[in-house]
Request: fold
Amino acid sequence: MHLKSVYAIAFLILALSAQAQQQSGAIKNGVTYGDTVKIKKTEGKYYNPKVAARRSAMIPGWGQIYNDSWWKVPILYGGFGTAIYFIYFNDDRYHFFKTELAIERAKDPQDQNANRIRVFSRNADAWRRNRDLVVLTMVGIYGLQIIDATVDAHLKGFNVDDNLSLNLKPKFGVINDGTPFIGMKFTLPIGK
Reply:
């Protein structure tokens, strides 16, 4: 009987306190309108990932400049320049061995050397494969710089405030029956 009266009094107090709260806005169709939520604006510039991706797709490095990551642009163009150099280098070697192979095949059948034809053919194929691989590498650099600009724009707005850190602390206590325990306590502070 005593427990029922405690529950009744607690329920009455909660009901009265709920009526005492003032509404700051009007309710219309179950939606509250008015000054209910205040948005805290973050400091600094907002970086749109879609804009960064589009700019990087149009002109390589433009998305990095948009994200204020200027230091990445020389690295990017250094990679493109190196790839272009090796494309021309491998293409030059491919055409050299292809020409040598054509000269060797144009000789009389008695003067042809089968070993030289095989060596020139293998070398031409190897240099062509290297050239094609470098072209694919250049396409990969282009794709990675678009991904980099997009991810960088996403992470620029990421909150790394100390209030969001996960705390790990040792926990010592006693269970209800008097048994002591040792454990770990994880806390994630939300708000203030």
User: Anything to note?
Assistant: The beta strands are 25-28, 31-34, 167-174, 180-187.
